[in-house]
Amino acid sequence: MRYSLAALVANAFTGNKHWPPAWRDAAPRESYDVVIIGGGGHGLSTAHYLAKEHGVADVAVIEKGWIGSGNVGRNTTIVRSNYLLPGNIPLYELSLKLWEGLERDLNYNAMVSQRGVLNLCHSDAQRDAYARRGNAMRLHGVDAELLDREGVRAMAPFLDFDNARFPIQGGLLQRRGGTVRHDAVAWGYARAASGRGVDIVQNCEATGFRIEGGRIVGVETSRGFIKAKKVAMAVAGSTSRVAAMAGMRLPIESHVLQAFVSEGLKPLIPGVITFGAGHFYISQSDKGGLVFGGDIDGYNSYAQRGNLPVVEDVCEEGMALMPMIGRLRMLRSWGGIMDMSMDGSPIIDKTEIEGLYLNTGWCYGGFKAIPGSGFCYAHLIATDRPHPAATALRLDRFAKGRLIDERGAGAQPNLH
Ligand SMILES: Cc1cc2nc3c(=O)[nH]c(=O)nc-3n(C[C@H](O)[C@H](O)[C@H](O)COP(=O)(O)OP(=O)(O)OC[C@H]3O[C@@H](n4cnc5c(N)ncnc54)[C@H](O)[C@@H]3O)c2cc1C
């Protein structure tokens, strides 16, 4: 069923009792052309683009919990393409372009809101670095504006411009960046993929791979063996565990990232603002709550909850940036498991096992990448060739020393 004004009115007059389920909650069949492991944003978008762009609809997405239970429903909803390195910019810009047309493509209101992303700078060196980043973006056809201090003040007068340690000198603004309602993204892709014939199978955990003569033949699951010509991993924070079932050891660590939301306020924060003297990002949801986060917890974990030191750290950074939030009450906090790669950039690639594909390493930034990653991963799975926007995102870059070290931090996940 297409969502439209006519459907809304018709259903309103019949007590909203006749809406069909948004997608089929399928039971697994014996075999598929493609099985995607992980019903997060990346798995679901891959299924959608496989069916839509390549006509490959004999696909199952198997999810051990429920759709949206992972990071796709736990993030701070920021989307942007303000990257520096040529290995990353094409993918994130492709993704932002897909976000811009996503609601029409999916016939689903994902609340895409291009309210701008502003990265603040607090020193001359940082302003130079942002000027360089902005130039790199513009050379790739991506929008970027360098604001001086007064330009920032006009947008966000409530910031502490004269903070003794971190005075604000200006900022790099990407107006096309913004926020998207995170769980609507999971639901929208699930609905669109299901509508094209993809089976979305919830409560179905991959427990092993069946590999014969170096080729994948299927997946062992908690609901029985599923035969498949191709199997694609898209399990984000669980990548190391799932890949280990195929005998692979990856340059990935799993860490907790927390997010926080405050009580509701009248509209205050114009877009997304990031603090350049630490790691703090904040925006305001349509309900009025301030949504913010900071660093990962700094130790490896598979727990979807974090610890107090990072709560304190994040709140201190928020106070340094905008002291007026000191009297605000925090409503909720939660955590998700991040697939941190050793250079801070993702991997979309084949593996040495024929027919087994890998999508991982999304670190803090995999929500914004969901459309672009799904588009490129679907291309790789369908054609066995990397999509032009993802040619640098190879697994062997770690062996060959061709790292895409976006932040220049080296192999230190808690610095990416
Ligand atoms: C607190 C927080 C804030 C964030 N903020 C942002 C942000 O503002 N902007 C941004 O771009 N990114 C952000 N991210 C990162 C982003 O959310 C993730 O990089 C991205 O969602 C990961 O991809 P996914 O959606 O496919 O992951 P997930 O939703 O985690 O999907 C993976 C799925 O695989 C399933 N799975 C695991 N193992 C198995 C198995 N054996 N069998 C079957 N299924 C399995 C899991 O249950 C899960 O549902 C944030 C993350 C967190 C935690």
Describe the fold and architecture:
The chain is an alpha/beta fold and 416 residues long. It contains 11 helices and 18 strands. It has helices at 5-13, 41-54, 89-100, 102-106, 124-139, 149-155, 182-195, 239-244, 308-321, 370-383, 397-400, and strands at residues 31-37, 59-62, 78-79, 117-121, 145-148, 170-174, 178-179, 199-201, 206-212, 215-221, 224-233, 252-264, 272-275, 280-284, 289-300, 330-341, 347-350, 356-360. Strands 1, 2, 8, 9, 10, 11, 17 and 18 form an 8-stranded mixed β-sheet that branches. The chain has an 8-stranded mixed β-sheet with strand order 5-6-4-13-14-15-12-16. Strands 3-7 form a two-stranded antiparallel sheet. The chain is globular, with a radius of gyration of 21 Å. The relative contact order is 0.18. The structure holds flavin-adenine dinucleotide. Flavin-adenine dinucleotide (FAD) binds next to helix 2, strand 12 and strand 16.
Shape: globular
- N-to-C order of helices and strands: HEHEEHHEHEHEEHEEEEHEEEEHEEEHH
Beta strands, count: 18
Individual helix count: 11
Strand content: 25-35%
Write down the Rg. Answer: 21 Å
What ions, cofactors and ligands are bound? flavin-adenine dinucleotide
N- and C-termini, Cα separation: 42 Å
Provide the residue-averaged pLDDT.
Answer: 96
Q: Helicity range of the residues?
A: 25-40%
Structural class: alpha/beta
Low-pLDDT parts are: none
| Sheet of most strands | 8 strands, mixed
